[in-house]
Amino acid sequence: MPGLLPRLLQRFARPGLEFDIVEFEQLIDSSALTPRQWNQILDALVSRYHDYDGFVVIHGTDTMAYTAGVLAFALRGLAKPVVLTGAQLPLVHPRSDGWSNLADALEAACQPDLNEVAIAFDRLLLRGSRARKIDVERFAGFNSPNAEPLAEFAIHAHWRKERWLKPDGEWNPLRIDENLKLAALMLTPGHGSALAGQALRDGGWMAPSCWLTAAATRRPTRFCSTASRR
Fold first, then answer.
1. What confidence score (pLDDT) does residue 225 get?
2. How far apart are CA 105 and CA 99, in angstroms?
């Protein structure tokens, strides 16, 4: 419901913490997210980048990990925290996990040395480019396999600053090509770019502009092609 969220979030107002709320006119289920909405989020962040010390993005859980990954790569030279969060149960539900997730996200967004995109969920702060949704039933809905949490939230917040990224280059954000077609390719032993090439040659369908492969760094490997439908 438009206008409901700003009223609910006033409970977090306190001395020393000032925040503004930007709400998009058209709210959608996150499962319907497209690159157009990614650009809306990017535009909202970039246009306000120099006015705030940190940002919290409230997002549906179905595609939150995808958005976190996009922001992590698109916000080149990021030198402030951008923290995504959401809830398995809506804020209006009496057992909603959203309140604790929001409290943790706001605290993380106030950390001046956190220069990356992260997800705050179920008392963990996860690197945005490594997080994934792992469960739809439990409150522990997200994890980052092979990447330790950036913080754990208990009675006190335990900041794992030795794991935090350093600022990387000048602030030079990107926008998403909304016409770009992407396909994810899971690499297994004995398969690689040849498999992607075979799919482009023999698939009989509109080939994606790029195949993205899993990588352990900020920058994924990609194989690009100009192939079209045969």
1. 36
2. 10
**Active-site residue among 61, 63, 67, 85?**
61
Q: What is the pLDDT of residue 16?
A: 77
Cα-based torsion angle of the residue sequence 221, 225, 228, 230 in order, rounded to the nearest 10 degrees: -90
Indicate the domain borders of the chain: 4-173, 181-213
d(CA 211, CA 155): 44
Is 61 catalytic? The answer is yes
Whether 50 contacts 79, CB under 8 Å: no
- State pLDDT tens for residues 163-198: 999 988 999 999 999 987 776 666 677 665 666 666
Q: How far apart are CA 145 and CA 147, in angstroms?
A: 5
Residue with tokens 């770019």: 193
Q: Which fold, 4-173?
A: Rossmann fold (3.40.50)
DSSP bridge pairs for 4: none
pLDDT tens, position by position, 7-30: 777 777 778 788 888 888 888 888
What residues in the chain have per-residue pLDDT under 50?
204-207, 211-230
